[in-house]
Write a structure and sequence with these properties.
Blueprint lengths: L1 H28 L8 E2 L21 E9 L2 E8 L13 E9 L13 H4 L6 E7 L7 E6 L4 E4 L1 E5 L2 E7 H4 L6 E11 L8 E7 L4 E5 L2 E5 L8 E4 L3 E5 L4 H18 L11 E5 L3 H12 L3 H10 L9 E4 L5 H17 L7 H17 L5 H20 L12 H9 L4 H16 L1 H4 L1 H7 L4 H9 L3 H10 L2 H5 L1 H5 L10 H4 L19 H31 L5
Parallel strand pairs: 15-16, 16-17
Antiparallel strand pairs: 1-2, 2-3, 3-9, 4-5, 4-10, 5-6, 6-7, 8-9, 10-11, 10-12, 12-13, 14-15
Helix pairs in contact: 1-19, 4-7, 4-8, 5-6, 7-8, 8-9, 8-11, 9-11, 11-15, 13-14
């Protein structure tokens, strides 16, 4: 009897062990990862200027999570109060979403950039639930900002919880090994048009989430002046802890521009650079005081107008949300100075226009980042034509000195697009090798107007008039015009894509994920069946032992 009892106990232990293995191994086999919810502070709703506002509790994010396996994902956004069944005001548009940087490249940002909301990631896709305007009900989609295509996805609204189910196919891209994202909740007026943001919330408030190898993690950043360092061929790049990805992006853009500019300029910078990459414009303002010796008063100019000073003594200050075009523009200034000293101070339209032209040409030649250059070209061409159509173009003689340029820039006049189009016209007409020597003439003492007439055979007035009348294809080339795409603003996608959903998303559906609880229930049932079988067998053995012998 003791032997039988011990045997039963051993079997029960084995069954218990098997059950534990079942609970651990099965989830792994199905690729499941236990969800981890990340909390977000409440009461932190803000407007499109970053000012704290009071709004509906269903916009106030409480916590978020993302789980995924085998190319399928489930996102949960929990807010402070239940979502509305509808909106009575036809002008109101509501959205709860994930802003996704699918290539983990902050420089590719067909949406934005708008650091106030996207925290500096390069938003490529929006995975979103929408309500309104004009009485439209709930619907969900993955919106590809670059192609402007939408794919309908399954969703569920359960009180104060939003569930969005999507997969690699709906993302419409090669399945990523990892991607970055930020959760947001948004309320718009004016039928969801750009600039009508009334209330916003995001998670996390700083940094971003990364989903990799089935796990969700949060990338936080350390504020203040840059302290970390990485090295490229021609620069030491300093950045904040947690901001290495952006720093590498800037370093890669710098090196690509450096190699390209060597082909157009006879001289290269005499020494390597120091590049300081900042998280905020306020940090940049403090950085140019600390690292480049600017006075506080002078530094405040860049707080007022944004941007950064041109590189000084081979030190470049990089603001938040720069792309390769801006990096190449600033580096071009150093090549100009290396070639012709301070001649640029007497012909600012050529200095800035040449920097714009070289940066556009440079980045256009890079397949991965050419859209950044095309975005700039499109916006500059539009601004130039707006000026032309309103007789707002400035005579080039009013864009020559540093004082003239700074005054107009402070007044927020669109002088950069004008300089870009004029110099690009000159480059396409005469070749960049013909216009760069104008700077050398000025360096040797020739006035800017005489240097232009001497090299090009035309006055500045004649050049501007010719650029005004030149067709777009003549200035930029037929290929650039044919392949151009519409520049997407940070918020203008709300209305245009609402009618392009490809599947019906109004029905509430269940996640395709196999719940861990379901697996546990199966395990318990299996254990009960096995234990019952063992006990039944033992009872039968006892009955058999009680039968009288036939001997």
């Amino acid at each position: 009897m003791n032997f039988t009892s011990n045997l039963v106990r051993l079997r029960l232990r084995s069954i218990a062990l098997a059950f534990l293995l079942l609970c651990v191994v099965l989830p792994i086999q199905f690729g499941m990862v236990r969800a981890e919810a990340f909390p977000d502070p409440t009461g932190d709703i803000f407007d499109n200027q970053g000012r704290q506002v009071t709004s509906e509790a269903y916009l106030d994010i409480v916590d978020v999570e993302l789980t995924g396996f085998d190319g399928s994902y489930r996102a949960l956004i929990r807010v402070k109060d239940a979502l509305p069944s509808s909106v009575t005001d036809p002008t109101i548009f509501l959205e709860w979403d994930l802003m996704v940087d699918v290539d983990q490249n902050p420089g590719t940002h067909p949406w934005g950039p708008w650091g106030l909301l996207d925290n500096g990631i390069g938003v490529d896709l929006l995975v979103r639930l929408m309500l309104g305007p004009s009485g439209q009900g709930y619907r969900a989609e993955v919106f590809n900002v670059a192609t402007r295509n939408s794919v309908g996805i399954d969703f569920k609204v359960d009180g104060a919880t939003v569930q969005l189910n999507f997969d690699d196919k709906s993302l419409g891209v090669v399945p990523p090994k990892a991607f970055d994202f930020v959760f947001t909740a948004r309320k718009y007026g004016n039928y969801g048009r750009a600039g009508s943001e009334l209330a916003l919330d995001k998670a996390p408030n700083e940094g971003h989430f990364t989903f990799s190898d089935g796990r969700l993690s949060i990338i936080t950043v350390k504020h203040g002046l840059p302290t970390e360092k990485l090295q490229t061929d021609h620069a030491a790049v300093f950045y904040n802890q947690g901001n290495e990805k952006y720093a590498r992006y800037i370093g890669d853009g710098f090196e690509f521009a450096y190699r390209t500019l060597q082909q157009d300029f006879p001289k290269v910078p005499a020494q390597n650079f120091k590049i300081y990459v900042y998280l905020t414009q306020d940090d940049l303002v403090q950085g140019i005081v600390t690292f480049s010796g600017f006075s506080q008063e002078t530094a405040q100019f860049f707080k007022q107008v944004g941007g950064a000073p041109r590189p000084i003594d081979y030190v470049m200050h990089v603001g938040p949300y720069w792309d390769w075009v801006v990096v190449a523009h600033e580096l071009t200034h150093t090549f100009i100075e290396e070639y012709s000293g301070k001649a640029y101070l007497q012909i600012k339209w050529l200095d800035e226009g040449l920097a714009n032209y070289e940066s556009w040409k440079c980045v256009s030649s890079n397949t991965e980042h050419s859209q950044e250059a095309e975005n700039y070209r499109e916006s500059a061409w539009k601004a130039f034509n707006d000026l032309k159509n309103t007789n707002g173009l400035f005579p080039l003689s009013q864009l020559t000195t540093e004082a003239q340029w700074s005054e107009l820039m402070t007044a927020n006049q669109p002088i950069y697009p004008e300089a870009f189009v004029v110099v690009t016209y000159l480059a396409s007409t005469y070749g960049s090798s013909k216009i760069i020597p104008i700077l050398e003439k000025i360096q040797n003492g020739t006035s800017e107007s005489d240097a232009v007439k001497m090299i090009l055979g035309k006055t500045e007035s004649e050049i501007l008039e010719a650029a005004k009348n030149a067709p777009e294809s003549e200035i930029f080339g037929a290929k650039a015009v044919v392949t151009s795409t519409v520049v997407t603003s940070a918020t203008s996608e709300n209305i245009q894509t609402q009618t392009t959903l490809q599947t019906n998303t109004l029905a509430v559906t269940q996640s395709s994920e196999i719940p861990v609880g379901f697996v546990l229930i199966l395990g318990i049932v299996a254990l009960a069946v096995v234990v019952g079988a063992v006990l039944l067998k033992r009872r039968r053995q006892r009955r058999s032992n009680k039968k009288p012998s036939t001997d």
